[in-house]
Amino acid sequence: MSCSSAPLLTVGDVERTAIAMYCNGEKTPSDLQRFNYLASEAGLHVTQQVIATSEVPVAIFMCCQSLKVYLKTVSPLPSSTSPSPLSTDVNPHGEGATHDPFMSRLRSIKAFLEEAIVCRYREQNAQGGGPATNTMFYIRGLLDCFALVVRAGLLEITEFSNVAIDILRSFEMAKQSSFGAHDGEVGPLSPVSPDKLALMLLDTLVQTIGIVNEKQPLSEHRRIHAHFKDKCLDDIFDVTVSCLFALHLEIQGGSRQPLFAQDPGLVEATVSLARSVLCFDFIGLLDMNGSDVSEEPSSMNFPASWRRVCLDPQFFPFVWDLFTGLGDNASVGVREALLRCINCLCCIRRSFFQNDEERRRWLGLVLQGTLHVMSKTSSWLQEPRLCAEFCRLLCRIKPNFQLNELLEDPNYERWLTMVTDFTCSAFLNWPYTASSLGYLCLFWSRLVGSQQYAKKEKMTHFEEVVPRVVGAFVNSRMDMAGAFFPSPSSMSGSSSPRNSPRHQNQQHLANVQQQQQGEFGQDNPLSDATGDFVSQMDWMANLLRVCLHQVVGDIAKLFRDNANHYSAAISQRRPPSGVVEERLAWLAFLFGSLMKVSSSSEDDFDADASIISSMFQLMELMMQRYSIRSAPSSSHPQMWIVGSGSATEHLELATLHFLHHFRNMYVGETTSQANKTLSRLQERLGFETMKTSDMQGRLLEFMLSKIVSNLQAWSVDMSPAQAGGGDGLGGEDGEGGSRSNVLGETLRLLRDLSCGFVSGRQLLDLPTVRRLLSAQGAHEFSFQRHARLYRLRVRYRHTTTTLLFLESGISQRQLSLYLSPFVGVLDELRRRYDEAAAMSSGNAMQGMSMFLQDAAIQDAVVGALCDLRGAATACIGRRNFHMYFEAMFPKHFETILAIATTASNETMIVQLLRFAFEVCHNRCQRIHFDPHSAGGFQLFFFAADVVQTVGTRILDWVVNSIFGGGQVDLAEASQSLTALLEKSAVRLDGMSTSANPCSLFSVRDRYDWLVKVSQLLLAVANCALSGAYCNFGVLAMYHDTKLSSLLATVWQLLLLLPLELLVGAPKLANVHFALVAEIFTLHVGFLQAHCRVHDVLRVLGVLEGGLQATALSSTASTSAYAAIGSLARHIVEGRWASRQDDLINASSMSPSRHGINNNSGANNLPLFAVTHPTPLEGMLLQEDSQLLVRWTLLTFKNLLIDDGTSLFRYAEALLPLTWYLRLTAATVGSIDGSGFPYGLATLLSRGSQRPTETCKEWVVLLNKLFDGIVEENLERKSRDKFLQQLTVLKNSSKNMN
User: Fold this and answer.
1) How many Cα atoms are found within 13 Å in the side-chain-facing hemisphere of 1018?
2) What is the mean pLDDT of residues 102-120?
3) d(CA 1110, CA 1063)
4) What is the pLDDT of residue 580?
5) Which residues of 453-478 are buried (b: 16+ CB within 10 A; e: fewer)?
6) Can you tell me the mean pLDDT for 246-265?
7) With contact defined as beta carbons under 8 Å apart, do 912 and 906 qualify?
8) 3-class SS at 714?
9) How many CA atoms lie within 13 A of 93 on its CB side?
10) Could you tell me the pLDDT band of residue 8, with boundaries at 50, 70 and 90?
11) Rg (CA), the chain
12) Highest-confidence segment of 205-209, 1001-1005, 1175-1179
């Protein structure tokens, strides 16, 4: 819901409706009508019958839901009755100043909600015997609404700072006034007591303050946050501690009135409030519930006022006792919340303690408490939430306490032993501790990583415990493998008919779900081996490096045993067991992460060499398996069973993970430690006499053979499900499936090898690479012919072209020979085109269109476009791109234009536009032609023809299919484009294929395809206009119409796209606003000559709406400000030019023969009175007189709420805008009749608590903007000076109210 919607939703409407329904008890038709509107705005549907039969709390709750929606979507100072931004009811001097009524409404709503929460309306529910869950549902809605109201007025309303005391006083009075009962006590049917309500309200308030409102600037959120922390949090903390002490006293049996025993919900409310207070974001930007383990806050910045309570000798022990005292009697949620409180107390920042003695004593309490908890873990180790929270506590100990501090504690050795036992138990109980694994791995990695900083006289005992931890982790992963895959015996081959290859593949695909979900319902970590999984393996590799010489024998034996089972299956011509492959995959991932950690001892060098040789032997077995399956005469297709999530895929991805990190360490530029490992590897492989450089060549050759084996084996017999889903729009936006994952990682490894300075040149010497670069090896791998893997094809061709350009002195003939297999498809199309032209007497387009209907030809053309696009991406230097352009122009570009004219396949159109974008993109200034060359004009003509051809077809399709033909105003039609697309499904399906390029699409796919094609078209046009390889002045001089035709097509596309579509499509918004900025910067003459005024205003309205939308990206908003600044610059420079003409005329009329200076007439002219409106200004302001003023105000407001550090984009727009206001001060710039700074200051001070003083402060700051700018120009020197003053203005505005 937006505050600009009609009819406007105001706080007063919600307040009056709620009071009318609750207090008066009257349901008049007007109230019901208004309530229905409020409910619909909140996403709720309420009929008159429902309201008539429902109880009053339902009506109040739903009104509060509407208020919640409103408060979450309004601007920082919403006011339904505030004047228009351009009205003049408030003058700069403060006479007649009015205050915003929003704050007074907040006061009344807060009082009303307090009454609604504590009043006797629940008595009706108690007498009716209604369920307690429904009542709590209504109450929680009221609490959320109350917290939002307090948050909205916390900075402006002084009495809101005492909200905690007010809440406690209100509920104390409610308790004394027989809340919920008739006899002064809480009734038995009351589901909630006043004490519990008070705690719940405080809890909700603390949580709501920490929520960042997306509609609110971050600086405003920090102000609210800091104000609440300083004014309210201390009182809430005192209440929390008192409640915790009362709960602990009652558990110990020392309480006379067992309140918590009578109301179990009171325990939950108390602990929840304690968690919210202790986990409060004291900085203002922390994510206390983040999923990223490594980025969690490591310390809590408690206020200094809490030191008296927290550092009390009895406080922390009593919290530990409270956790253990609750035991199993409390719910898991309560114990988890209390453990979170302990977690926060364990990681208090260092400056909170006054001396080292207090800190050491606190560390002793932390270790004693964790020891006490770990001694009783058997009862709750199988509770995933409790275990994860405790592991989180352990993980945050090390960042707050140094290892030397831990070593000085007398309980260190016992604590380390208990933590080791707990870690091993957690690893072995992996079905229940999956969420705890990351915390434990990070804890041990941090602990062991600081061993080098420990004092030498202290014993860390890591050599005793770390091997146990690593062993438990490895053993748990081996056990996990058996839970996701069947036993080896069930996977063994057989000669029975049921074990035919087809039956085995069907059986394998049927077991995919079992492989994804284990026996305990856990997800297989290897199915998503990215992100957190890789981090966990890296942390565990740090532990493995410490004790590698101790555990390498056991791990090598485990690896050898599974590798022998794998080898036996290969030799017997049967598929290996899934358990064996899964175990090998876990070990390979661990070995790959180990390659990232550098070795430092001789034992580590030997162990690394042993691991590398074992991995190479495994990869040789895998390649042997692939060769058996890929052989033409193979009678063992069951050797190849691959499905999504299969163990074969996991093992392949693990080996590629190993090769990636092995390449970084040992191939190419190596270190001395790497050379020592390679020398030992030579001994193991029998190459003792080989040089290190030759050894790297052999390793590189082995890695290339592995890459070729993967590309050959993993792309045969590929079904669409195995290849990946794609998006149906060219295969660029989605690539799932097992085989595409393996192929993608394989191509990434090949790309990394080719990009290396040493490894890339070594690859060129290998015969395999020479074969791949030849014309015979252009289509060696079958994945290049698959319809869903176009992105992989582009990536592969980019890599091979990069290798080709690494060869020094490559000639034009070599590049043409390399491109011949791809352009051969275009040559065949050209030959068919010429034949059709000869047979049909010049009507070749129809013959080309019929020829492109064949599916095989469509795939060939799309594949050729992908290959050519991939080759173009590798052309980084000017020489390489020039050779590529010479190889393609002009014959092949003409063929591509013919395809753009006749193609009816949606994938072909998308890939053609992607190719055109890549060719026209002046990346790294690669497009540069000699002065005597016409290449720049030819490339621009190609881009213009592509945009005009495809853009015209798209526009005709929209007009004919959606609007039924005829004259259509695209600016007006764009507002309902989405609805019209959905309504036109029947009409679109009835069109011919040639006229409707997406006739086979669903309604949603049509919409997505239009968005994608529009984005690509605008991107190609933007590259052509901003590429700087064509002189547009030459085109104008020779009356060439290419530029005007391109701009006309682009302008129609810009008019077609509504703001709602741009906000939902970030990529389209980025290129849309960038293209508008380009047009407003260099092609303003086109706007004046060929565009209607309301069309220009329509595009400017989209710019203005985009700047008001919070979902707009930074790139798009920067382009929007550049467009506004360019248009304002053109207007200001036009006014300066008009004044210069007046100055010249005035000086020509002065009598110089009398010795009077010729410039005296100019000096006597008023500064701002001699400018005249430009034609563009007159055209725009005639329709919207306050356009530039509104832009200035919008840019200033966005500047003030922006939290970024760079203000350059605002300065680029504000410098010409403010110059315009100064130049027009005598005519339209006096917004309030007082000149430039006063009018703008008046608008900026609206909504302030003291508008008169704020307005004067704004006047001072605005006058300083032009300090130091002595020349009337918009050049770099003036802009830099203006940017400095703008930064001062923003910093000074933070102190204004």
Assistant:
1) 27
2) 65
3) 9
4) 93
5) ebeeeeebebeebbbbbbbbbbebbb
6) 75
7) no
8) coil
9) 4
10) very low
11) 37
12) 205-209
d(CA 494, CA 293): 47
Give Dmax (Cα) for the chain: 121
Structure tokens at 1250: 């003291």
Give the pLDDT score at 1157.
41
Q: Report the sign of the C-alpha dihedral through residues 478, 481, 486, 492, in that order.
A: negative
Give the span between the Cα atoms of 143 and 1103, in whole angstroms.
39
DSSP characters over 39-78: HHHTT----HHHHHHS-HHHHHHHHHHHHHHHHHHS-SS-
Query: What distance lies between CA 903 and its chain's CA centroid?
Result: 36
What interhelical angle do 812-839 and 855-873 show, nearest 10?
150
Name the pLDDT band for 149 (thresholds 50, 70, 90): confident
DSSP letters spanning 78-146: --SSSPPTT--SS-TT-TT----THHHHHHHHHHHHHHHHHSTTHHHHHHHT--HHHHHHHHHHHHHHH
Cα 193 to Cα 190: distance, rounded to the nearest angstrom: 7
Q: Would the pLDDT of 1179 be above 80? A: no
Question: Tokens 């695209």 map to which residue?
Answer: 970
Rounded to a whole number of angstroms, the distance between the first and last alpha carbons of the chain is 27
1016, 917 Cβ separation under 8 angstroms:
yes
DSSP-assigned letter for residue 348: B
Do the Cβ atoms of 761 and 667 come closer than 8 Å?
Answer: no
Q: What digits encode the pLDDT tens for the residues 1133-1170?
A: 888 887 666 666 665 555 444 343 444 333 343 444 44
Task: Please report which confidence band the pLDDT of residue 277 belongs to, taking 50, 70 and 90 as the band edges.
Answer: very high
Residue indicated by tokens 């700069």: 92
CA 679 – CA 677 distance, rounded (Å):
5
Confidence check: pLDDT of 183 > 70: no
pLDDT for position 992: 34
**Sign of the C-alpha dihedral computed for residues 151, 156, 162 and 167 taken in this order:** negative
Which stretches does DSSP call E strand in 497-541?
Answer: none
Q: Do residues 446 and 542 make contact, with C-beta atoms less than 8 angstroms apart?
A: no
Q: Is the pLDDT of residue 903 over 50?
A: yes
DSSP label of 517: B
Q: How many residues does the chain have?
A: 1297
Contact 1213, 1131 (CB under 8 A): no
Cβ partners under 8 Å of residue 1267, min gap 6: 1281, 1285
CB 1178 within 8 A of CB 1091: no
Tokens found for residue 54? 């429902």
The closest alpha carbon to 518, from 566, 578, 588, 437, belongs to 578
**What Cα–Cα distance (Å) separates residue 517 from each residue in 115, 481, 522, 583, 867?**
51, 12, 5, 17, 39
Is the pLDDT reported for residue 639 higher than 90?
no
Amino acid at 1135: R
Query: For residue range 999-1050, what is the model confidence (pLDDT) as tens digits?
Result: 333 445 666 778 889 999 999 999 999 998 999 989 988 889 999 999 999 9
Whole-angstrom distance, CA of residue 976 vs CA of residue 213: 30
Distance, CA of 359 to CA of 402 (rounded, Å) = 11
Q: Which residues contact 295 (CB under 8 A, 6 or more apart)?
A: 287
CA dist., res. 390 & res. 371, Å (int): 12
pLDDT value at 746 more than 70: yes
Q: Which two tokens stand for residue 588?
A: 């390979």
Calpha distance 1192→1196 (Å, rounded): 6
- Helix axes of 163-176 and 102-118: crossing angle, nearest 10 degrees: 30
pLDDT digits (tens, 9 = 90+) for 771-802: 888 877 777 888 887 767 889 999 999 999 99
Percentage of the chain modeled with pLDDT above 70: 70
CA distance 992 to 969: 25
* Matching residue, tokens 């990223």: 292
In the structure encoding, which two tokens stand for residue 217, read together? 């600037």
